[in-house]
């Protein structure tokens, strides 16, 4: 489902610029410190701290060349049982599916069954302005076609068992474009739904059959495949939505809705095998691999997000689906793979992806402090209740509902606020803390968003 992505439900509350396809920092050129890769105590402590804060429940795998340098699994595959995770456990992978969808398209391009310059109207002539959109734009999120998450009824639609992928296209038709085709990068799951349907038209196979026959079987990916509606592998772990207050089974979703934008399952070993196969040109030509690696000035290339670490170049993708979160990162020059998968959609995927990669590249990481959540009385809550201005037309509302405190951005879903220190709050799914400051006459005049204890956005109270 985002480069600046996104998704179990594709939360957008001020994090469009914060959550990335993979979060990464800067490192010194070409220095991968082998000594740090051999010292796993710090990373062990980091993962344990994440789990203690109810922010991790799953598996991590880091490899260099053909050597496992770190692996760790924490938690249970379901709350009802006593089976623990292993690095072979099978999870839904959400938007990591896009890397497979893109690989399938590139295979068809190499077979001359498709061209990157082909227009969408060749396949969907009834879609508005389809003669202006190319396959390449769909692959690289430059189509401008509106993401289906932006439609108010998308959650209801995702639960409708009769839904098929073409229904998603029909929904988007009503207000088809967010930007002009080719104008700018705009992450849209709808584009990858189109690509899955195009794979079916061109190959004569279902998306699930194509992925199985042309990618999984040749690479011997025995724990990878496509979930069609509710049909998936028997050993798929159960997904959960969690918060500091509760843990519950994730909401149902008909996986025909995300379809080829996010309906696959896998494990870490298969994802590593697939990733290495892509970048070693096992699935399509070296020429197409080079195009993938340098698309759009290094932003997003044919299914993979791109980040520069000085002279190092990293490729990866985040993934999230109801009850699941994961990420894969790969540095081809170092043959360094970093991946994690969890069955807890409260996992801070961008932060975790960034910190695992930072550690693997020999840089220091910070152990998350233990958060002790506290209750607060009704009188305290009134200090925070009100509206706070982000920008004209976009505000944050803090309100009480069923004796709980929530925050909601204009047009977005609400998130419960959990107090862990006086005037400091955490939320489920969002990767930042919230601080209220500037108390005047018993209320606060400023709401701040904090990342690593640093404020990156301030919203003043709106006075009526």
Task: Explain what this protein looks like in three dimensions.
The chain is α+β, with helices and mostly antiparallel strands and 464 residues long. The chain has two domains: 34-360, DD-peptidase/beta-lactamase superfamily (Beta-lactamase, 3-Layer(aba) Sandwich); 378-460, Lipocalin (Beta Barrel). The chain contains twelve helices and 20 strands. It has helices spanning 34-38, 41-52, 97-110, 135-140, 154-159, 165-173, 189-203, 207-219, 268-279, 286-293, 349-360, 378-381, and strands at residues 58-64, 67-74, 91-92, 225-226, 240-242, 247-249, 264-266, 300-301, 304-309, 312-321, 324-331, 336-342, 386-391, 394-401, 404-409, 414-421, 424-427, 433-440, 443-451, 454-460. The strands form four sheets. Strands 13-14-15-16-17-18-19-20 form an eight-stranded antiparallel beta sheet, with no helix packed on it. Strands 2-1-12-11-10-9-8 form a seven-stranded antiparallel beta sheet, with helices on both faces. The relative contact order is 0.17. Residues 1-35 have low confidence and may be disordered.
